[in-house]
Amino acid sequence: MAFRFLGLILLPWTLQPAGAQQLTQLGDPILVTLAGHHLPLTCEVSYPYTPAFKEYKFSYYHIDLQVRQSPPISANCNKAPGVENKTHTEICSFTLTSLHNASATGTYYCQVEWPTRKEKGEGTFILVRDAGYKEPPEGSKKLLLFTFTGLLAMLSILETGLLIWKAKKWRMSAKKILHQKDPGPAGCSADPKPDQAGSIYTALQSRQSEVYDCLQNDASIPPSERSPPTQNHDVQVAHSGVL
Asked: Vertex 200, ends 174 and 193: CA angle to 5°?
């Protein structure tokens, strides 16, 4: 009977609820740093403040990209007194100083060891880069600048030449249409040659004055010497009279 009573007294100290110990890694799950830089990490340890869990070992290790695990490295935690049989939380901070090159890339884990239990954190993936952004050489920058400027100049010249060719082609087509619609009466020049630099509008204006001159010259010719008018000539005269 006395032994059973003693067991009830010691029961709270010997039996602890499962999952009362917890280790949490604080901060971002993914970090990027340059080789040679020091990177601090922080973990949080929670446990029932009892004689069975007051003493523990805290360490960290990492697993690289080839799934090779490094030996654990011990670190200290900021231990502080707590309340018996209550959940107690302590902060464990450490600094990574072995990030010498890109081979240090991997997932870093916190770890806590009690006499009867071991816990590890979720892990923090750290990408280590050998070097950051570097300015390109001065010669390469000038070469890129000259190449880009030359391409722009070439495209501008090609576009200008294409526009001139289209304008010239359009002008020749317009003159051809005018010749087909207005062959002109006999004795008059049917192919006025306006200034090549002038516009089509200027050519039409000078052609209108030539039509009137042809009509006046035709009126001075005796009727016996005139050629019989054609339908196109009558239509052209009537059209000119309206103008």
From this structure: 85
